[in-house]
## 1
Amino acid sequence: MASATKDAVVIGAGFAGLSAAVALAERGVRVTVIEGKPALGGRAYSFEDPDTGDFVDNGQHVLMGCYTETLDFLKRIGAYGQLVFHEDLEIQMLAGPGQSAVLKTARLPGPFHMTAALLGYRHLSFAERMSVMRGGLRMLAMRRFGGDELRRLTVAQLMDRLGQSEHARRCFWYPMSIATLNDEPESSSAQLLAEVLKRAFFSRRRDSAFVYSRVGLSDLYCTGATRLIERAGGQVISHSIVEMLELGARGAVASVRLRDGRRIEASDFISAVPAPQLLRFLPENAVADPFFSRLAGLSSSPIICVHLWLDREVTNSPFIGFIGTTTQWLFNKRQIFAQRGEAHPGYLSFVISGARKLVDRGNQEILEIVINDLHAMIPASRAAKVVKSLVLKEKNATMAPDLLSHELRPTAKTPIANFFLAGDWIQTGLPATIESAVISGRAAANAVIARSPANSY
Ligand SMILES: Cc1cc2nc3c(=O)[nH]c(=O)nc-3n(C[C@H](O)[C@H](O)[C@H](O)COP(=O)(O)OP(=O)(O)OC[C@H]3O[C@@H](n4cnc5c(N)ncnc54)[C@H](O)[C@@H]3O)c2cc1C
């Protein structure tokens, strides 16, 4: 069969949209990516701070060795060399000044590397460590053999089932759960936690280790992806909002209409935007379809990231978890990034995930909370002068990982034959993360290719 040239429009240039577009471009499809904002990158973007010259990520993004699809995507676009791979997982957890314990995986084949990390975690008593290990094994067994059981439980309910003490929850389970799922254990899905812990902590040793980008996020993947798409004859158009999907004969999408009046036609279309934005540009008769209308039921959860530039370094640790404070994680950017800002020796970024109770407060109040938490945990930091600060709130940072989301997350395929969905919130089995976004993008691209009469590109 003669191979007709296929063209596709991808709406949205975050990880999902760019991974879909790259997968299509690699298979000979002429792609047009349309991004509403002036800059690409979506929720994983960075910018250069004009005062310090530092690259600031909207929120500290951490990749892990288990992000296999993301790492493969970064390899394809030539960005792999910008990554720093840690050999082991090593998380310092502070429960107060000088009260430090480290979760450090051992040089053993997985999952024994993690068993050793738990055995050495001194915030828990020996009995608690054994209980956490038994609990972890039971959770993995439930994931494998328990049918739908985990789907119906929140993380807090799972902890009840596993007989985990308040102290073990506070010092181990909940920091991990909130960081990976971005919401409170009382509402987050136990199934999503089990999936993350299985992939990240109970598989291969290298899967557990952190992977950081040496450069700002936007530089990490937007430039390389754009280059690949353009080399394959496609284009990336920014600062152009899609206002409407236009249906043609037989109910297929014929074109997208942009806010400036332009109209772009193609044979296939992928939406890689979050659900609320998708519902805005769907035609009315499509929104009425239960496949789409139910998406309005998905909710989101916020993340706050506070950046502090100090006149000195206050810790040598690259990464610290705080137990018992509002502030959850400290990232020491001078230790993480290869490139070190000259202007100010101390550059820290702090993360508060699932920040529902805080997100509507003023920036100054949030800043004071974070600085107080820093002073409480690292008293030496009291002597440091804050040179500059930045509070970044992402109100709709990620899809809320609640039990309802299992029913509401859609597949890549929609009832419209030539229209597909991508985005971290699509049904991937993972919480809304970069890995989920990249997987969804590739799935949507595969669905486009599979629909092609000439799918042997
Ligand atoms: C502060 C913060 C910290 C995070 N930390 C981590 C982490 O450590 N690890 C991790 O794995 N994940 C993390 N995440 C989640 C991760 O950023 C997301 O899962 C991922 O970036 C989502 O990518 P996406 O392509 O699905 O969506 P998005 O990045 O939201 O991309 C959608 C794009 O579509 C565009 N768009 C929307 N509407 C239109 C329209 N009408 N026309 C044209 N364009 C449109 C948007 O401008 C946007 O660029 C974090 C998120 C935040 C906010």
## 2
Amino acid sequence: MIRQQTLAKSISVSGLGLHTGRVVRLRMTPAPVDTGIVFLRTDLARSLPIQARYDNVVDTRLCTCLGRDGVTVGTVEHLMSALYGLGIDNVTIDLDGPEVPILDGSAQGWVEHLLEAGQVAQRRPRKVLVVRRAVEVRMGDSFARLEPSSRFRVSASIDFDHPLISRQSFSFDFGRAGFVEQICKARTFAFKREVDYLRSQGLAKGGSLDNAIVVDDFSILNPEGLRYQDEFVRHKVLDAIGDLALSGEQVIGHLRLDRSGHALNNLLVHELFSDPRNFRRIAADQPDTQFDEGFALPAFAAS
Ligand SMILES: [Zn+2]
């Protein structure tokens, strides 16, 4: 049986919020089975827990932002990606500001904190969802598609009119070790002219070369360069895993993305759940450990 997991102990992390530029203190605490990932703003007197679910997403313009009754928690995607990548199902996350710390713009810092805390298996099986029918959403030139597959796989491509980025593709067969090695270190990226514009609008106040790859028309401004030659598209995979994590279940299917972003990723999860014939839920209570690495048993593979 593949059991749900939570943290072995609590973790506290402080860091800058990308948009406010203010330090946010965040504390992750082990939570009981079937809790899922729940955020709570501790800086507000009247604040209700916000379940990290696709239907609580209230804004996708600059990040994935959750909200409930006017209270929001922004930039959840890299932390959600780290939790999903490591297979952590149940955690309560308290934070004293409106956004999750950006750390270095990747999920590496979150992965390190989570690995240091350790994980414990809980009593119930993990929730596993097998995609049965392909679903697809489009916006202009972009598309996101989820297809039946015997395992969780992400294939992404991007196409930017920029000499250092241009067209990049990356396919990732999901696995915990692979996530840690190939995906979690990829940083978010921004174009200098966009950063200048956001700053003029009072946004991205915490943004710097310490938490994003920044490119101008010809070069990468970060003196240390890139972590992977195709770091840009790998970050798209990281983001998409974080957005898919908002399904609240382990998804067995092939996620295919071209020029996608948070809005499209969220729309795809809405599309998936819009018709119960699109998926099948299975209990991960079989004596099969392959679920941990994103596989479904052949008998469960979408037919
Ligand atoms: Zn991102």
## 3
Amino acid sequence: MKLPHLVIYTDRLPGGVAGAANGPLVRTRPAYRSDAGLHAHEYRHVQQWYLASVMTALLLAVLVLVCGGVQGTLLALCPAALASHSLAYLLWPRYRLWAEVDAYRVQMRYGLSLDVAAVRLASPVYGLGLTPARARALLL
Ligand SMILES: [Zn+2]
């Protein structure tokens, strides 16, 4: 069973990007509509978003309980849980690296070669400062 998400096809993406996931919303270029590997890559980011949201919500709930907060505080913090994956991806390069290595490993199960995945992971788009050789080692 797939987690709820929405895929839209659009060319309104940054240059050099075939797809992007923002929470449960996936944007994919129409030219990649039948690319099962790309869909799997982006869906992995959707799964990461759900996992980070749930884990952050649980952590916040525990903190509120331990600190003696009220339910209103927890509700006020819910948006933070939903933004945790996106914020970590944007601001924390090690998290972004983990997320992309995880997603490219999934995409490789659909036929993407290790060498091509390494070149893509080393792309400046991700801002990870990787060489293809280092990216290749991380993807093994
Ligand atoms: Zn990705």
